[in-house]
Amino acid sequence: MLETNDSYLRSEQLTLRGQLQQGFANSAAFMYRPTILTRASPSVPDFALRVRDMISQNVIRLINNEEQSNLALSYLTGQKNLLTEEQKANLRTAGLAHAVVASGFHLAVVVGFAKKYFGKISRFVTLAGASMLLFIYICITGFSPSIARAGLVSFLTLWGWYFGRKFHPIRMLIFVAALTLLINPDNINNLAWQLSFASYAGIILMTPLISKFLYGDNKPSALANLIIACISAQLFCLPLTIYAFGSVSLLALLANILISPTISFVMLFTVLAGVTAFPPFAFITGVLVQFHLAVIDGIASVPWAVADFQPNNPITFLLYIPILIILVVLKLVTKHSYRCNYGKICTC
Predict the structure, then answer these.
(1) In terms of domains, do 249 and 267 share one?
(2) Average pLDDT, the chain
(3) Number of folded domains in the chain?
(4) What does pTM read for this prediction?
């Protein structure tokens, strides 16, 4: 029998013995404190996991601050298990729990990096480089429901952009939802999958309407666009968040404005520090993450930062009625056509 406190790897196969009991929430069944009989390595080595572990070890060694290195690695790889329960609670209070879940935001950073540097060469190099980086990143983080949704959207929009194909946002939303459910029907009950699609729907449907309403045909600034996107995503996630957690952050917008613009830099310098083991990269990462921790802890200490509600109340979903009314009214007032955004690379 193996010890239960051993460290197990992501792709290892375990043989368990115990009493199988009826599951709850997203779990079909569960086994309480099973006996671990055997431990087997996968037939195909998980090289991506080895790369992730190598990066993690270098970052932890160079930063030499557990709180800072764990948050930096959580940004990069979506490993929430690196964070303490207090850190997770503070992130929820600040409305930043999405930042440590590998999703569309992280893939958007990857695509943006590829577009900026490979785009100077050619469209084909941009497509190939972005696809390669996306594949590597998804292998490192694992194929979670949220990353599956974001990955499909990213690859589809990239290839559509390259071949000049135009996807209607609503059709894209329905197609990706259907495909991810076809791959794993249990995703329909997965909160991460639900929140991922809700935020994606808010960004692609509400963001252009608010931008058109406030700025007309002019392009909003980067900060204004960030604020609008945050509002849109949080608005569509609001009923789900209240239903699942029974609370909502009142300072989430402020936290996202202060922190979101620099998360991509934290990810960049974290991976540079992990790959090169070059101390200056780790120093920059530490400084940025220290600022993030100060903002997160400061907001979490505000007594009225969170509004509490009754969780698991189906009436909460009635909030989608006024949200959809706002969406329809803005669509009628602005006469916005979603087709105008077709040519952009947007992973959301």
Answers:
(1) yes
(2) 80
(3) 2
(4) 0.73
Which residues have C-beta within 8 Å of that of residue 313, sequence separation ≥ 6? 242, 243
- Is 124 inside a domain boundary? no
348: in domain:
no
Q: Which residues pair with 213 in a beta bridge?
A: none
> Is 59 within the bounds of a domain?
yes
50: Cβ–Cβ under 8 A, 6 or more apart, which residues?
Answer: none
Within a domain: residue 109? no
Q: 236 lies in which domain range?
A: 48-101+180-341
- What is the per-residue DSSP string for 41-107? --SS--HHHHHHHHHHHHHHHHH--HHHHHHHHHHHH--GGGS-HHHHHHHHHTT-GGGGS-SHHHH
3-state helix, strand, coil in the chain (%, to 5): 70, 5, 25
Statement to judge: residues 24 and 52 lie in one domain: no
Handedness of CA 141, 145, 147, 151 (dihedral sign): positive
- Within this chain, do residues 278 and 311 fall inside the same structural domain, yes or no? yes
Dihedral sign computed on CA atoms, order 104, 181, 13, 31: positive
| Count of other CB atoms within 10 angstroms of residue 116 | 10
Q: pLDDT category, 291, cuts 50, 70, 90?
A: very high
